[in-house]
Design brief:
The structure is a homotetramer of 211-residue chains.
Chain A (H helix, E strand, L loop, with lengths): L6 H4 L2 H24 L6 H7 L4 H7 L3 H24 L5 H14 L5 H11 L10 H25 L8 H21 L10 H12 L3
Helix pairs in contact in A: 2-3, 2-7, 3-4, 5-6, 5-8, 6-10, 8-9, 9-10
The structure holds a DNA duplex (21 and 21 nucleotides).
Chain lengths: 211, 211, 211, 211
DNA sequence: CATGAATGAGGGTTCATTCAT
DNA sequence: AATGAATGAACCCTCATTCAT
């Protein structure tokens, strides 16, 4: 790295091109899977939407399952990474919770497609398209909830919150935010998410606060 | 029931027999769909589990989609019917909410199968297996939430709750209960549902109570 | 089997029909495989030639390989069975050898198709379409050669033949008959097989006779 | 070596280089085809083993079939050339036959790969991968057998052999040698070829000798 | 009327071949 | 000239649906 340019920029043109194509495929796949679900999307359709031939898809992904896993795991990992970082900030608990709920909104800019798939996977509707994917996602999800619980636990110890099970508090917060996210997904006009962040926080906070 | 025997009993034997067979098919289908998901279950499997020939299944249901819709709608309608009736009781608000949350638990005795499918459908993971199914389910769901909101609205008006949007309060309660239900589904040992009903009510109630 | 009818005749009509269809499929497959080889024949072609839909083929055979194995093993087993029985007769050695060589001709009535496939498989050109098939065929083949060798060994012990390795004598006889069979396959007019049986026997017999 | 250098040496360097590359491709292809058979080898594999790009293979051979034909014909032609030359020597008949059988062994040092493919092709197992290849090979083969028959015919005329059809005698000798070759291919330990040359000659010779 | 054999469209995947670089 | 990314026809197989018995 003598010439100091960032790694990404120094990738050979060919490599960058490949990555771009991979992204295009993933984007096409995300849209289609999100619209119709895993089984109702054919590899031909994905290739077509990405403007490739079927064979090309198989240069990037071993098979349909592999493509799906790559898609889901990338999105989920990215999303949970953001959430964990949010919770790792050095802030007072109310700010932390606010940031957390706001960060969940951030994923929405990735579009309803991602969110819809995310719900399908994290809410157990995937019916184990691939054993192992479930587990991987579950693990990431649990990490976030655990991190959230530890924040809430601090709140309990510092007498901010009542003596409730922190994991159950985390579940409650997850439930509230997911419900609002889902409302947004169904009807964004009627259920704006960001505008309701204070409401969510408020309800949750009072629900668990000590006095 | 003055005017004679209950409706079911008055059906000609032939008709009753048919209904029973239909139920057997739906039961078999429910188990299988819940285990493996819509696309991974074949009509032959359903027929086999119900101990019919494939052709017979088509006497009862136009096609696979039709069978699925019938199955889902029946379960969802039954479930929401119970919830609505629960909320229609003449009780004070805390009791009502408790009954509501408890009623959600009642469906669990029907088995995880129903619940899993219920989540798949209400949480948007079905990816519109049949356009229109979504809408039908949505409608039933909205009725329940509306009924719940009206109860909560009464709470606001009677100064039991703070001045929050009743619909949003309903969403929050839905979110909390669903989160716990989902936890139970994933790991019933670790997340017992019934034992946590007071916790849920408690968190929600304090979150929305007027002091 | 009280009613004394032969098993086959008593098979329900349905069963007999199924067997007939299976035979039709095997016949179509034999012709095609023999004409073009395993990899150049598609399941659609086989179904078409037998006047079935593809799906039907899969009612009878798990997959293409299974069909191929069934085809080959049936023919080879039948063929080797005949040869072994021929060699098991209680006759003098010259008669035995004559019958053996003549029996090899008998398979020809099954047609060149069978023979061509037989050569492909026993002469090692199959390149292990399926590991295991090779072994099965090899085993059957070895049994016949061993049986033949034991006959020849008797010839040696009774001083009919010179003191040669019976297994090698068997190989020589196999070689001669196969060469003539192959000649017939290439050009039946120019290389009639049956007419040459005495010649083959003659050459072989004198080659190994004790004076 | 002025202008009189051997043809190969006088080829421009470029041409020689091309020929060498062609050979490398053929060698790689021979190994692979022999190991797995025509249909189970991809052009990519061949290119890879020869350390070329796929495109390059198509500079040398019009298509896969063309490559295969070139490979087979080259080997077969070379092999039959040797056999014919062997039979063209001015020697007594027993020596000639011995040399012939020994020459068949010589090809074995070229490896089982060649032999396996040779059997696949000459024994009709190739199923006409390319119509026309059969004919070309058959022609070469027939020339050798004809040459062998003419030697044997001389034997008949000089009263070395009995009055048998020389062509049929040739077929018998071919059969015997092929059987032993095949035995060697299957299990070189159990069926050494060279050690058995005298046995083969012996059996054949006595089989056809006059007294 | 119930049956289940038969159908064939459609899906995932491979690989011979082409052609822009 | 050499490369190998891209193509898409064709393959094997499954399964929803039909219909003769």
């Amino acid at each position: 790295m003598k010439n100091g340019a960032p790694a990404v920029a120094t990738l050979p043109r060919r490599e960058r091109e490949k990555l771009r194509q991979r992204e295009e495929l993933l984007t096409a796949a995300l849209e289609l899977f999100s619209e119709k679900g895993y089984h109702s999307v054919s590899m031909h359709q994905i290739a077509q939407r990405a403007e490739f031939a079927v064979g090309t898809v198989y240069k990037f992904f071993k098979n349909k399952e592999d493509l799906y896993k790559a898609l889901i795991l990338a999105k989920v990992a990215e999303y949970h990474q953001i959430l964990k970082e949010t919770l790792d900030q050095e802030k007072d608990i109310p700010s932390l919770l606010h940031d957390y709920v706001a960060a969940k909104a951030a994923v929405l800019v990735g579009g309803a497609a991602t969110l819809r798939l995310y719900f399908a996977e994290t809410r157990g509707a995937s019916f184990n398209i691939k054993a192992g994917l479930d587990r991987d996602i579950r693990k990431l999800y649990d990490e976030v909830v655990a991190r959230l619980a530890s924040v809430l636990d601090t709140g309990v110890k510092t007498k901010v919150f009542r003596k409730l099970d922190p994991y159950q508090m985390a579940m409650a917060l997850e439930g509230i935010t997911n419900a609002f996210l889902f409302g947004w997904l169904e009807d964004p006009q009627r259920h704006p998410y960001e505008a309701n962040i204070p409401t969510m926080i408020d309800m949750f906070f009072l629900g668990v606060s000590l006095k």
